[in-house]
C-alpha cells in the first residue's frame, strides 16, 4: 500500500517537470508529451536566439549581483545578531526576515510606485535591489545559523592572541563558515534567478529576465522552444540544489517560517 | 605590607553580572607575581566569570581589573597580552599546530625567521615539536592542551589564565597531565590563575587556593592551610574528607582558640580548636578529618581512652565498610550522627562488618569548631 | 556595542528604504482618488476600500481566493498527511526520495511549472490522453483555464508547505507514547485516531495556514492557467495597476491582501506557541556553569 501511494506521489510531484523536459525533445513544432521522436532542434534554436540569450545574461548578472549584495549585508547582520545578543535581537531578526511574510506582489507593486514617484527608471540596478530584498531573509537566516555553529571560544582565543575583531572574522570565523556562505549564496542566486512576480513589475523590454521571457512567450505561442528553455532552467536548479545539499545538507532548507 | 609591584593581578571591588543578576559583587583579590592561584568552587560560584573578567571577555559593572599596576578597564581584549587556555582548548580547527601556535606572531607581522624560532621553542617546552604539521583533530586531549599552552606562551604574556584545564580528560589521563602541567607552569614562573571545581586538582597545582561560594571568597590560603584550618564548614566540606558533628557551643576560651561544645546527638561534651568567636549556645559543627579518627574494637581500650586527657571518644555502630585499595572507609553512626573513618587497609580486619560496635577516638587538637 | 550597530545598519537600512518606506507610500496611495497619479486631485478617503468589497468583480475575486484557498488547503492536507506519515515510518532511501521529490520542485521557477501544467492540461495533453485511454471520458476535457487546473497546480506547488510541518510534528511525537498506547491495548486504528492525529495537530494547523497564506497571494499560476477566467486577488491587483492603470484601487487591494496575510501569519505564531505537547519530565533544565 505504502509503495503504491509513494509511487503515485512521486509521479504527481515530478510530472510537470518531466513533461516539460520530454516536450523539449519534440522534433516538430508541436507541444506534446510524449514527444514523437528525440531531437535537439529546439535546444539549438534557444541557444542561438538573441532574445533568450539576452534574457539569460540579464538573469545571470542580476542573480550574481543580488547574491553578492544579499550575502554581504546578510553576513554583517547575521554576525552582529549571533554574537551580539541583546534585548532587541528577536525584533531585529523579525524585521530582517519580514520580506518572507509579505506577498511578493505587494513588495513589487510598492517598489514600482516608489520608483515612479522618485522618477527613477526601472533598470537592472533596481531589479538587483528588489531581488536583494527578498533574498536577504534567506541569507540572514542561513548565515545566522552558520555563525552560531562556531564556538565563540575560538574567536575569544583569537582576540586574546592579539587579533582585532575584523581580523578574527576574516581569519577564523569566515573560513570555518565556508559551507554556510556557499549555501547562502547558492540559495540567494536561485531565488533571484527564478524570481517571477517582483520581476514582472520591474522589468521592461531591455531588462528581460528568463522567467519573464517564458511567462510572456506563453501568452502568444506554445512551442517546444520554451520547453527547451525550461529544461535548461530545471537542469540549472538541480545542479544548484545538488551543490547546496552537498555543502550543507538538505535539513537546512525548507520553507519553514 | 607587600609592595604594590609584587602583585601581578589585582581585582578591586569587582562587580560582574549578566543580565539582571550580579554574579560577583565587590570582589577584592590580589595575585602575587609568579604564583599559581586557583579559583575553586561549585558550579555557579562565579569563578569562571572572574577569570573572564581578567581576560577582558566580560566588562565589570563596577570596580577594576589591574594588571602590573595598570587599570585594564579601557584596554580592549586584544591589547591586554593575557594568555588564556580555554576549556576545550579552542585550537583553530582549520589550521595546523604550527599555524595555531604562530597565529599571534603572524598577526603582529613578526618576521618569518623569528616566528619559526619562537614557535619551535614553545613547542619544545611542551614537548610537541614532532606535531607541528598535524591538525587539532588528529591530537589527543592532552596533546591539544599542550599546544594551547604553547600558543599562549609564545606570545610571552604577563599572566596565564586556564579555564578548567583538566576537566576534559579522563581520570587516568588527568593524573599524568597534571604533573606535566605543574612542571611547565613552574618552569615558566609566570603568574597563573586557573579555574577548577576539583579540590584535588586545586591542591596539587596551586600555591594558593581561592575558595569561592555564591560570588564571594570563602577562604584564600595555601592548600595545606585550607585543608587543615578551614575557615568555615563550607571550606571544610568542599575540601572533603571531613566529619561534621552537630553541636552547641558551651564555652570558649578568652582568646577564642579553644571551645567546649555539647554534641547534639550523643550528648557528650567535646573539646576542639577554633579560629572565630562564637556566641554561647550557638549551633556549630565540631569537625575532624576522616583520616584523623582512629578506632578500637575493644571496649577495655575504649574505657581507657575515655579517661585520657586530650582525647575525644565516641561509641558508634558500623554501618558499612568500603575497601578502596590502599585505604578503607568505615561508615558508622551514633544515633543520627554519621561518622566516617579512613584507615590504611592493612590495619583494618577483613571481617569487620555492619552491626559491629566500634569505638572512635581522636586527638582534641585535630578537632576544629566551625560555624554552620 | 557600537560595532554591532555598524554591522546591522546596512541590512536594516536596506530593508527600511526598499520595503517599509515603499509600503508606507503604497498605503498612502490606497487612500487617494484613482486619477491622483494622473494629475487629479487627491481626495483622500476610504473609497477604494469600500469599492473593494462593494464592487462585484473585486468581491468575486476575494471570494474566489478564499474558496480556492480552502480547497487547496484540504487537498494538500489529504495528500500531505499520508505522505508525511509514510516518510516518517519508512527506511532511509524511501524517506529521502520522497523528501527530495517534495522539496526539489521548490527550486524550479514557478513559470516552468506553470508551463508544464499547460502542456499537461492541453486538449491533446497527457492528462486527457490518459483519461481517454482509461476509458473515463470519450471527448477531451477542457481543463486549461478552469478553476480545476489552478487548484491542481496550486496543490502541487504548495504540498511541501504542508508535508514539512506535518512531518516535523510526526517526528516530534515521543515514540514511547505510542508504545504506551499499544501496551494499554489499543489497535493500530485507535492509536492512529486517538494518539497520532491529535498530536499532529500543530503540524496540520501550521501547514494549513501556510498553504492558505500562499494561495492568498498567489499570482503566476492563476494567471498562466486560469487567465481571465479565474479572478483572484493577486491577478486583480495586477490587472488594476498594470492594465487598467488604477493604481490607488490596486494599492487598496494590495493593502487588504497584506492585512489578510498578517492575520494568518500571526495566527500561525499564536498557535505555534500554544500547541506544544512536550510534557516530558525527563527534559533537562538549566546548564551547569
Q: Your description of this structure?
A:
- The complex is a heterotrimer of chains A (257), B (372) and C (289).
- Chain A is mainly α and 257 residues long.
- In chain A, helix 6 packs antiparallel against helix 9 (178-194).
- Chain A contains twelve helices and no strands.
- Chain C has 289 residues and is mostly helical.
- Chain C contains twelve helices and no strands.
- At the A-C interface, helix 1, helix 3, helix 4, helix 5 and helix 6 of A face helix 1, helix 3, helix 4, helix 5 and helix 7 of C.
Radius of gyration of chain C (CA) equals 24 Å
Q: Give the overall silhouette of chain A.
A: globular
Full CATH superfamily name of chain A: MetI-like
Biggest pleated sheet of chain C: none
DSSP strand content of chain A: under 5%
Run of helices and strands of chain C: HHHHHHHHHHHH
| Structural class designation of chain A | mainly alpha
What's the arrangement of secondary structure elements?
The complex is a heterotrimer of chains A (257), B (372) and C (289).
Chain A: H1 2-24, H2 41-48, H3 50-84, H4 89-97, H5 104-117, H6 124-148, H7 152-160, H8 165-176, H9 178-194, H10 197-202, H11 210-220, H12 224-248
Helix pairs in contact in A: 1-12, 2-12, 3-6, 3-9, 6-9, 7-8, 9-12
Chain B: E1 7-18, E2 21-32, E3 36-40, H1 47-55, E4 62-67, E5 70-71, E6 82-85, H2 97-107, H3 112-126, H4 141-153, E7 159-163, H5 171-188, E8 191-196, H6 199-205, E9 208-213, E10 216-221, H7 223-228, H8 233-239, E11 242-252, E12 258-263, E13 269-274, E14 283-289, E15 294-296, H9 299-307, E16 311-323, E17 327-334, E18 337-344, E19 357-363, E20 368-371
Helix pairs in contact in B: 2-3, 2-4, 3-4
Chain C: H1 2-30, H2 47-54, H3 56-89, H4 92-103, H5 110-121, H6 126-133, H7 147-172, H8 175-183, H9 188-217, H10 220-226, H11 233-244, H12 247-274
Helix pairs in contact in C: 1-12, 2-3, 2-12, 3-4, 3-7, 3-9, 5-10, 7-9, 7-10, 8-9, 9-12, 11-12
Amino acid at each position: 500500500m505504502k509503495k503504491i501511494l509513494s509511487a503515485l506521489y512521486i509521479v504527481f510531484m515530478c510530472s510537470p517537470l518531466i513533461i516539460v523536459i520530454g516536450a523539449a525533445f519534440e522534433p516538430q513544432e508541436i507541444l506534446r508529451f510524449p514527444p514523437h521522436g528525440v531531437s535537439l532542434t529546439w535546444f539549438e534554436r534557444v541557444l542561438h536566439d538573441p532574445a533568450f540569450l539576452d534574457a539569460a545574461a540579464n538573469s545571470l548578472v542580476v542573480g550574481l549581483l543580488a547574491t553578492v549584495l544579499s550575502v554581504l549585508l546578510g553576513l554583517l547582520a547575521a554576525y552582529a545578531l549571533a554574537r551580539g545578543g541583546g534585548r532587541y535581537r528577536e525584533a531585529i531578526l523579525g524585521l530582517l526576515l519580514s520580506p518572507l511574510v509579505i506577498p511578493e506582489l505587494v513588495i513589487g507593486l510598492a517598489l514600482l510606485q516608489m520608483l515612479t514617484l522618485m522618477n527613477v527608471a526601472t533598470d537592472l540596478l533596481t531589479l538587483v535591489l528588489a531581488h536583494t530584498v527578498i533574498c536577504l531573509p534567506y541569507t540572514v537566516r542561513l548565515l545566522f545559523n552558520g555563525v552560531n555553529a562556531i564556538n565563540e571560544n575560538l574567536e575569544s582565543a583569537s582576540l586574546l592572541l592579539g587579533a582585532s575583531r575584523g581580523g578574527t572574522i576574516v581569519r577564523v570565523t569566515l573560513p570555518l563558515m565556508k559551507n554556510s556562505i556557499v549555501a547562502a549564496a547558492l540559495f540567494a542566486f536561485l531565488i533571484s534567478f527564478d524570481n517571477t512576480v517582483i520581476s514582472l513589475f520591474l522589468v521592461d523590454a531591455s531588462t528581460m529576465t528568463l522567467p519573464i521571457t517564458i511567462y510572456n512567450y506563453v501568452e502568444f505561442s506554445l512551442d517546444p522552444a520554451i520547453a527547451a528553455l525550461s529544461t535548461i532552467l530545471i537542469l540549472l536548479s538541480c545542479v544548484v540544489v545538488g551543490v547546496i545539499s552537498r555543502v550543507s545538507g538538505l535539513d537546512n532548507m525548507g520553507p519553514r517560517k | 605590607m607587600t609592595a604594590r609591584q609584587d602583585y601581578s593581578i589585582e581585582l578591586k571591588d569587582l562587580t560582574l553580572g549578566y543580565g539582571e543578576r550580579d554574579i560577583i559583587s565587590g570582589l577584592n583579590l590580589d595575585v602575587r607575581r609568579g604564583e599559581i592561584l586557583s579559583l575553586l568552587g561549585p558550579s555557579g560560584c562565579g569563578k569562571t566569570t572572574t577569570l573572564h573578567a581578567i581576560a577582558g571577555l566580560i566588562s565589570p559593572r563596577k570596580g577594576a581589573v589591574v594588571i602590573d599596576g595598570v587599570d585594564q578597564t579601557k584596554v580592549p581584549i586584544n591589547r591586554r597580552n593575557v594568555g588564556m587556555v580555554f576549556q576545550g582548548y579552542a585550537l583553530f580547527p582549520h589550521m595546523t599546530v604550527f599555524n595555531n601556535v604562530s597565529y599571534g606572531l603572524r598577526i603582529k607581522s613578526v618576521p618569518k625567521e623569528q616566528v619559526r624560532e619562537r614557535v619551535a621553542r614553545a613547542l619544545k617546552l611542551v614537548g610537541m615539536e614532532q606535531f607541528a604539521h598535524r591538525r587539532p583533530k588528529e591530537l589527543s586531549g592532552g596533546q591539544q592542551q599542550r599546544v594551547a599552552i604553547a600558543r599562549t606562551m609564545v606570545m610571552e604574556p604577563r599572566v596565564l589564565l586556564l579555564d578548567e584545564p583538566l576537566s576534559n580528560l579522563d581520570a587516568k589521563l588527568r593524573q599524568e597531565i597534571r604533573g606535566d602541567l605543574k612542571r611547565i607552569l613552574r618552569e615558566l614562573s609566570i603568574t597563573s590563575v586557573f579555574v577548577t571545581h576539583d579540590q584535588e586538582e586545586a591542591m596539587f597545582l596551586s600555591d594558593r587556593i581561592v575558595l569561592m561560594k555564591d560570588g564571594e571568597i570563602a577562604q584564600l590560603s595555601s592548600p595545606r592551610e585550607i585543608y587543615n584550618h578551614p575557615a568555615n564548614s563550607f571550606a571544610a566540606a568542599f575540601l572533603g574528607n571531613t566529619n561534621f558533628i552537630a553541636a552547641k557551643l558551651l564555652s570558649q576560651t578568652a582568646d577564642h582558640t579553644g571551645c567546649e561544645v555539647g554534641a547534639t546527638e550523643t550528648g557528650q561534651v567535646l573539646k576542639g580548636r577554633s579560629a572565630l568567636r562564637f556566641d554561647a549556645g550557638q549551633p556549630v559543627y565540631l569537625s575532624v578529618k576522616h583520616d584523623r579518627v582512629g578506632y578500637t574494637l575493644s571496649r577495655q581500650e575504649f574505657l581507657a581512652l575515655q579517661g585520657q586527657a586530650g582525647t575525644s571518644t565516641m561509641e558508634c555502630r558500623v554501618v558499612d565498610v568500603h575497601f578502596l585499595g590502599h585505604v578503607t572507609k568505615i561508615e558508622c553512626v551514633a544515633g543520627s550522627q554519621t561518622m566516617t573513618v579512613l584507615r590504611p587497609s592493612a590495619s583494618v580486619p577483613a571481617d569487620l562488618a555492619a552491626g559491629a560496635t566500634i569505638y572512635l577516638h581522636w586527638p582534641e587538637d585535630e578537632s576544629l569548631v566551625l560555624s554552620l | 556595542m557600537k560595532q554591532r550597530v555598524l554591522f546591522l545598519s546596512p541590512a536594516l537600512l536596506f530593508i527600511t528604504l526598499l520595503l517599509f518606506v515603499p509600503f508606507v507610500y503604497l498605503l498612502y496611495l490606497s487612500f487617494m482618488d484613482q486619477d491622483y497619479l494622473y494629475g487629479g486631485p487627491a481626495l483622500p478617503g476610504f473609497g477604494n476600500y469600500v469599492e473593494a468589497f462593494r464592487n462585484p468583480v473585486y468581491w468575486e475575486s476575494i471570494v474566489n481566493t478564499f474558496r480556492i484557498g480552502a480547497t487547496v488547503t484540504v487537498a494538500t492536507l489529504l495528500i500531505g498527511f499520508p505522505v508525511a506519515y509514510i516518510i516518517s515510518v519508512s527506511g532511509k532511501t524511501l524517506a529521502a526520495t520522497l523528501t527530495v521529490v517534495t522539496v526539489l520542485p521548490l527550486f524550479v521557477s514557478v513559470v516552468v511549472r506553470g508551463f508544464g501544467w499547460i502542456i499537461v492540461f492541453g486538449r491533446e495533453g497527457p492528462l486527457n490522453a490518459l483519461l481517454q485511454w482509461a476509458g473515463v471520458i470519450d471527448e477531451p476535457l477542457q481543463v486549461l483555464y478552469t478553476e480545476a487546473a489552478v487548484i491542481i497546480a496550486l496543490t502541487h506547488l504548495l504540498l511541501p508547505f504542508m508535508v514539512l510541518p506535518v512531518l516535523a510534528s510526526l517526528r516530534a511525537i515521543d515514540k514511547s507514547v505510542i508504545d504506551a498506547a499499544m501496551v494499554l491495548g489499543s489497535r493500530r486504528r485507535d492509536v492512529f485516531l486517538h494518539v497520532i492525529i491529535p498530536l499532529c495537530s500543530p503540524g496540520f494547523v501550521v501547514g494549513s495556514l501556510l498553504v492558505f497564506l500562499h494561495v492568498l497571494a498567489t499570482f503566476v499560476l492563476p494567471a498562466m492557467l486560469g487567465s481571465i477566467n479565474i479572478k483572484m486577488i493577486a491577478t486583480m491587483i495586477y490587472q488594476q495597476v498594470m492594465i487598467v492603470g488604477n493604481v490607488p484601487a490596486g494599492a487598496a487591494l494590495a493593502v487588504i491582501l497584506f492585512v489578510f496575510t498578517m492575520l494568518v501569519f500571526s495566527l500561525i505564531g499564536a498557535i505555534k506557541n500554544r500547541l506544544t505537547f512536550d510534557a516530558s519530565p525527563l527534559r533537562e533544565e538549566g546548564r551547569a556553569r
